[in-house]
């Protein structure tokens, strides 16, 4: 008899340990999970691949999916209890008694065998909810597989995005962008959550036409998917029917006259009822206030009459309509007259960036600490798509500085390739050819980026934003006094610097002039291009961009300019030698950053020779990424060994850990002894904590 009012999610979560210990015949439960399409085949394979007890993996996957999936699992356990539960009375607590404490309700999504006798409308509503869950999981699985043979075993989870009904400051023309300090400029990209809006509120408010706008990759589809997810989990009569059309479907519809009717749009293009099609359609028409339709990725053209009639409320005049689109699309001829409740997606705020990295990487990751303490990288990750690729690069690379870790440039190259793939939608195997075919557009965008950087502006003008050029994958429109020809900008200023570096590699004759400018007060801001340029010259990155720039040209540029780059930022003229020269700490750290990106032992050897193998970083605050770059350079030393002075430095525990890993390459290390003692004390406490935790793990 039911004796609890817990949700299915809480019930499964609280019973996780008990289920993990007592459940049996895993294959029986997995068969039902697959046949009812609760879990995908990939997830089933993941569970089966686990050594030992696969139930914990199964339960974690189900819990991550939320209330609806947990409820479905409970119904399956009820259905298979004679095979998956031990005999009643064998153990205490007893699983049979435990399950009897859950109050199985009458939610239409989980009526199991009783649904056989349901009316066609109820059955169709159940099918729509299952379809919504499949869409969410399929789209998430696609994003998790963008790197070959590398996946992260996570299911869709909504990390709060900043949703605002006001126009973002970052969409306005940024004439004074380069008058701000770099640190202030980076902070302006991270939004503040003033309105505290959520997808749940958008679904359940009284608005019937909602326009969700935002930059590419900023999270519009994530908001739409969370609306879907919330709908599958909620009870009650509001929103009995939900239909979701993504960008590929909308592009197809915009180029075709079919379907011509509402019935064909909903049933032929989305999901057809198994029985009682006429009855279901009549219910949808007569009760349009119970209908929600999402057009996710509207391209600004409503050529299809059926779609247009839904948007203008000629069909289903009481339905709730969501449209997501990029910022520039809302000024299109159709949407500019579409009176609606406008919501702008502005990406992750600081708390959400931390939450996202915590969820994806865990709390014990040194690489996570490095990323969170890198101002450029942290600011970049306000864009969820960029944050995902940064996390992927960290997950797939070692964190030790001496073992070919990920570089910042690699992350940007991965972002470049991922955006190109999304833009052209080619198979991964054909991505290189697609990039090569669009080399002209890529070069034009790189040139424009460099010219804008020279002009100290983030505004890119005179670009054709009406076609399908590759700039669509990387730029967003800014508000302007001239709506017909608005300027465009990258989603982050460091992305513009990356593209400027790409230009210098494609047109290397401009490198000497750029280096000369870096030596001047007026042009010193251009130095931020060169860590990216060094990264693009590395052998590892060469394999990713050789479809764009030949390996021969990359090797030639590296051979010709790497010494000049190092000497420029050490403020030393070519050929000049002075063993007594003192080097500015900021310059030393910047050159180490360039060398870390370049990943060249030869270049490191040249640098160490130039500074006489003496790195004086005393009285400096070193973030974990700087510790990583310096440690990498030290690790490349052969003979003589390096003298490292860290007197009165502020170094985090992960940073100190990296330095201590390079002890064999040091002639001497000067450091505050109390910090070393404190670090070893923390290490001892951490080991004790891990031992206690492992001792109390359930068997």
UniProtKB/TrEMBL annotation:
Transmembrane region positions?
Answer: 668-685
Q: Has UniProt tagged this entry with the keyword Transmembrane helix? A: yes
Under the heading Pfam families, the entry gives: NACHT, NLRC4_HD2
Grouped into one coarse class, the protein's main location is cytoplasm
**PROSITE patterns assigned to the protein according to its UniProt record, in alphabetical order:** CARD, NACHT
Domain named NACHT: which ranges?
208-298
| InterPro entries, alphabetized | CARD, DEATH-like_dom_sf, NACHT_NTPase, NLRP_HD2, P-loop_NTPase
The entry's keywords: Cytoplasm, Immunity, Innate immunity, Leucine-rich repeat, Membrane, Repeat, Transmembrane, Transmembrane helix
GO terms, biological process: innate immune response; positive regulation of MHC class I biosynthetic process; positive regulation of MHC class II biosynthetic process; positive regulation of transcription by RNA polymerase II; regulation of apoptotic process
Q: Where in the cell is it found?
A: Cytoplasm
CARD domain mapped to chain residues: 4-77
Q: Which domain of life is it from?
A: Eukaryota
Protein name in the entry: Uncharacterized protein
Source organism of this protein record? Denticeps clupeoides (denticle herring)
Query: Gene encoding this polypeptide?
Result: LOC114786216
């Amino acid at each position: 008899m039911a004796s609890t009012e817990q949700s299915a999610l809480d019930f499964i979560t609280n019973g996780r340990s008990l289920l993990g210990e007592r459940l049996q015949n895993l294959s029986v439960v997995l068969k039902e999970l697959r046949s009812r399409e609760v879990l995908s085949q990939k997830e089933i394979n993941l569970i089966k691949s686990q050594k030992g007890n696969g139930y914990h993996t199964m339960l974690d996957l189900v819990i991550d999916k939320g209330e609806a999936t947990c409820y479905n699992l409970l119904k399956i356990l009820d259905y298979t209890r004679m095979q998956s539960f031990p005999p009643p009375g064998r153990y205490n607590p007893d699983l049979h008694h435990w399950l009897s404490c859950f109050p199985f309700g009458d939610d239409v999504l989980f009526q199991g065998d009783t649904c056989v006798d349901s009316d066609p409308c109820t059955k169709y509503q159940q099918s729509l909810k299952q379809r919504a869950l499949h869409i969410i999981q399929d789209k998430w699985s696609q994003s998790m597989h963008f790197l070959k043979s590398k996946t992260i075993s996570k299911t869709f989870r909504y990390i709060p995005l900043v949703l605002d009904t006001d126009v973002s400051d970052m969409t306005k023309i940024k004439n004074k962008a380069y008058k701000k300090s770099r640190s202030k400029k980076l902070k302006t990209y991270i939004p503040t959550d003033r309105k505290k809006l959520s997808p749940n509120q958008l679904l359940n408010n009284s608005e019937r036409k909602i326009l969700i706008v935002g930059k590419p990759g900023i999270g519009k589809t994530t908001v739409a998917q969370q609306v879907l997810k919330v709908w599958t989990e909620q009870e009650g009569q509001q929103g009995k029917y939900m239909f979701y059309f993504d960008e590929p479907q909308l592009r197809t519809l915009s180029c075709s006259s079919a379907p011509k009717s509402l019935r064909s749009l909903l049933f032929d293009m989305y999901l057809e009822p198994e029985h009682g099609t006429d009855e279901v359609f009549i219910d949808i028409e007569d009760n349009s206030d119970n209908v929600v339709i999402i057009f996710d990725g509207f391209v600004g053209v409503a050529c299809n009459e059926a779609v247009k009639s839904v948007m203008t409320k000629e069909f289903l005049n009481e339905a709730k309509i969501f449209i997501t689109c990029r910022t520039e699309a809302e000024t299109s001829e159709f949407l500019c007259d579409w009176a609606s409740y406008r919501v702008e997606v502005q990406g992750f705020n600081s708390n959400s960036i931390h939450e996202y990295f915590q969820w994806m990487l865990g709390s014990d990751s040194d690489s996570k600490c490095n990323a969170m303490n890198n101002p450029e990288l942290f600011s970049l990750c306000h864009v969820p798509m960029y944050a995902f690729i940064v996390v992927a690069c960290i997950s797939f690379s070692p964190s030790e500085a001496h073992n070919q870790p990920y570089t910042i440039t690699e992350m940007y190259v991965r972002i470049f390739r991922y955006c190109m793939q999304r833009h052209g939608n080619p198979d991964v195997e054909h991505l290189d050819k697609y990039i090569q075919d669009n080399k002209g557009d890529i070069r034009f965008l790189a040139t424009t980026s460099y010219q804008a950087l020279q002009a100290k502006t983030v505004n890119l003008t005179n670009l054709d934003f009406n076609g399908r050029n590759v700039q669509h994958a990387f730029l967003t429109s800014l508000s302007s006094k001239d709506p017909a020809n608005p300027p465009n900008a990258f989603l982050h200023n460091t992305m513009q610097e990356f593209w400027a570096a790409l230009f210098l590699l494609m047109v290397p004759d401009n490198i000497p002039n750029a280096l000369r400018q870096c030596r001047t007060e007026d042009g010193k801001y251009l130095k931020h291009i060169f860590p990216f340029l060094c990264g693009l010259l590395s052998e590892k990155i060469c394999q990713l961009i050789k479809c764009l720039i030949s390996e021969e040209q990359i090797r030639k540029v590296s051979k010709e300019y790497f010494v000049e780059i190092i000497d420029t930022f050490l403020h030393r003229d070519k050929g000049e030698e002075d063993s007594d020269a003192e080097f500015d700490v900021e310059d030393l750290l910047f050159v180490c950053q360039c060398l870390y990106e370049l990943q060249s032992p030869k270049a490191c050897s040249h640098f160490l020779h130039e500074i006489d193998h003496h790195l004086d970083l005393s009285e400096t605050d070193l973030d974990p990424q700087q510790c990583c770059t310096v440690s990498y350079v030290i690790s490349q030393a052969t003979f003589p060994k390096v003298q490292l002075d860290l007197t009165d430095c502020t170094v985090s525990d992960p940073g100190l850990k990296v330095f201590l890993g390079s002890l064999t390459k040091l002639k001497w290390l000067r450091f505050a002894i109390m910090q070393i003692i404190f670090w070893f004390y923390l290490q001892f406490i951490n080991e004790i904590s891990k031992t206690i935790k492992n001792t109390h793990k359930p068997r």
